[in-house]
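Morning!

This is the sequence you dropped in the shared folder:
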Amino acid sequence: MEHRHQQPQPSESSDSGESIQITDADSVQLIQISDADSVEPIRISDVDSVKRIEITAADSVERIQITDADSVDDQLPSLDELEKILGYKFNDKNLLEEAFTDSSFPHKSFSYERLEHLGDSVLNLLITKEHYIKYPDSPPGALTRLRAANVDTEKLARVAVKHGFHRFLRHNKPLLREQIREFSQAILDYPLHSNGLIDAPKVLADIVESTIGAVFFDSNSSTDIVWKVFEKFLEPIIDRETLKVHPVTELYEVCQKRNLRVKFVDLWRESMEFNVLIEDQLVGRGTYGLKKEIAHNRAAKDALDNLATILGDKMNCM
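The structure's back. Tokens below.
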């Protein structure tokens, strides 16, 4: 069904339609779909003010796509609120808007990617400096591990969720909200860091780095101001006492110390799974469908948890 420069009906209902398309609708107040068993795409284009989209009992709505929606910006929290959270007043607020605009967002010719690139470099410098001063006896390798733990995707994504940065992100990614919800729930089991066991949406880490880049540029390249603004957000900073060994690394180290043969069996293409064999005995299993690396890490962690129980006497020196 298609509306062109006409006042649309308040709602559209479909029990088994294949598609819904609305184009050039000036003031759609409500799109409502009830008991839609097989609505495949929903496309809304050139909509000036879509107030609400409501889907009830839809078993298989595959995609909702909104393009050229003029009023999406107005429904997002004000960037003034974000400045209050940061405790920093921008001289050029366009930098802040750029820092929170994803490339998927309509009507914008810019995205956060350049500021993210800048912020990544600034953050690496600041974290390295912090540990260099704190641990004057640490060799470069140890400082590198500390830096990596404090700037990786999961650590920065935690910052974004904890302080609500994600609420200000301008994007058109329908699945992102659920991904953020799942991540927010998963980190409850790992207060500091999961060491590769959970999937962190990269965009969350990106906007932390892009905001760092925006403050750096806005403050005439002052690393002191950037650190003053962001140190509190980056807490707790992982240090030598709280740094954990990655589960894959730890498993190899444990097995090498005891002269045990370890083998990862890659079944990810077939069943989204990795198995861990030690001395040809199944000791661990890890599953995750979206990222192969996480399934691999989970298998290593499962093997570490099961080593003493399954291998018995061979692990009596643990």
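Headline: The radius of gyration is 24 Å.

More detail when I'm at my desk.
O.
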